[in-house]
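Figure S4 source data
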Amino acid sequence: MTHTIKEIALALGAEALGATDIVITRAAEPAMAGPDDLALAMNPKFAETLTQGRARAAMVWAGADWQAMGLEAVIIAPRPRFAMSGLTKLLDQGQGFDVGIHPSAFVDPDAELGEGVSVGPLAVVSKGAKIGAGSVIGPQCFVGWNATLGEGAYLREAVSIGARVSIGARFIAQPGARIGGDGFSFVTAEPSSVESVRKTLGDQGEAKPQDWTRINSLGSVTIGDDVEIGMGATIDCGTIRDTIIGDGTKLDNQVHLGHNVVVGRNCLICGQVGVAGSATIGDNVVLAGQCGVSDNIFVGDGVIAGGGTKLMSNVPAGRTMLGYPATQMDKQVEGYKALRRLPRLMRDVAELKKSVFKGTSDT
């Protein structure tokens, strides 16, 4: 897979200068780039490392004196990191999945496969499943009964899609993603100690120990277009209605969405985030790594929560949150700074007490 500098620039909508007929085989860090590589030097701090490699061409920042750096050609993009999105797509060699059904795969006769679908080794496509054109069902994947995947779906290895799950176009699931498991819903015949604690915030009451009885999941999962699910992520079915993920939302590795959760459009849900049952997440929300969202609350549009934040009550739209329990980020940082000052403050108070009591004893 090779491209000239001119071809790459055209694909990215960027400007190309110099010997634009140079052929590129891959992208590389400046210090490690060879003569057929495109060095990624999109910040002035990379200028020195360019001389450590052997690159003839690079993607550089606007205004870079590229000829002084010994380069023969450059690509200049107004927003270099955004240009990397197109560049990596252009140079991605993929996973080697071929069109067609592998002999070891099982596709039920009542399943519907669109044109150009790839089904990998040991994959299972169940009765009534519908797979859109151009989709890839990777090795050891499972697509459940009456599940639907839109065109251009891409399931990496060992992805599981449960019964009746509905997924839009251009869906991506990384290895080991699990979509459509039963919700974690259990109940006791009489009010339990957990119910008492929720009401009283501490008192377990006099509830006796009881068996937990399962509540079955009658709903499934509905996912919009252009959604990506990370490795090991798990999404529970809804109890009565579906669990829902809106268009353009991206889930990182090991994210968990409980039953009945609703996630809006264009959200970023980062690694190890847990969203408890029946929570509602608005549009354009960012939850950084290891955030937790309590059950039955809403998080408004445009909310950003920093790493490790625990959202335990409703969050209005546009807030920036941090901490446990979550408060507005500036207040949390202010409180953290004050906490760090406490030891010095206590020492000052101790010294002041000594001075006061010493003065009292002298009189």
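Figure S5 source data
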Amino acid sequence: MKKKLFITRKFPPHIVEPLKEFYDIKQWEEEEIVIPREKLLAAVADCEALWVTLADQVDEELLVHAPHLKLVTNLAVGFNNIDIKALRKRGIMATNTPGVLTNTTADFVMGLLLATARRIPESDRYLREGKWKSWYPMQLVGKDVSGSTIGIIGMGRIGQAVARRAKGFDMKILYNNRRRRHEAEEMYGFQYVSLEDLLKQSDFVVIMTPFNDDTVGLIGAEELALMKDDAVLINASRGGIIDENALYETLKSGKLWAAGLDVFEQEPIALDHPLLTLPNVVALPHIGSASLQTRTAMLMLNVKALTAYGQGQTPSNRID
């Protein structure tokens, strides 16, 4: 008898089709709309495997409704949507998609940094709204990236990839991490500093740390006050690491050059959120890994894990 798999989003048919050899598959038939919670809770009642996205919370409530669940496959490298402790308690495995999105996300972070520093989205709006009447010396002037100092909070795979790219812009690289990266320091000249010193010295502060109990609200009013008055704050990790209210008040007061944000505490962000009223905030809809090649590779990692489980093997990319 085939195992029962529920997929919380409509994925491309050619991605899902090979899994039919091992699974009786049911799928939420919407690509853009998140499955309503009550429908998800009903759908997991008899499934043994569950394929989710970041928008789906796999928590105690869901697990109570899923007595047969043995595997959760997450279409993301981060997994703060999954209560890993609750899964372990029940002997349920979980997998994610590490590695394949490192370079794509690092490319994106540099793009977001450049767009924010040089006011590229604001300039695009300026042109489209018919405001470009002439050229003048201080028109839409931005902030130089080359030769500046970047401070990276979180020096995992993606953080290191961002740092290597920053070297290409002749930037001085500071970083703060739970443990030092001695090999990277020796190879590339990255400099380890305390979080306080990183905030004080950096022209660009880039958040790449995972979201967990230690990083909730890591950047609040006190931390923002330490930053240079013309610094740029970039977050392409997870929402909730920055205190958004504190960031709004800081930017509104005229401190900081700008902020570039791909992630928010609540996603999608409400259109009446105060941050969206500020011209020096570049806000994007969580697209850090959104290249065709990378999203396909992420899907295929999930398929690989599900195939292994369907064949009675232990999946790779398990979240330990």
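The longest strand covers residues 3-7. The chain has a mean pLDDT of 97.
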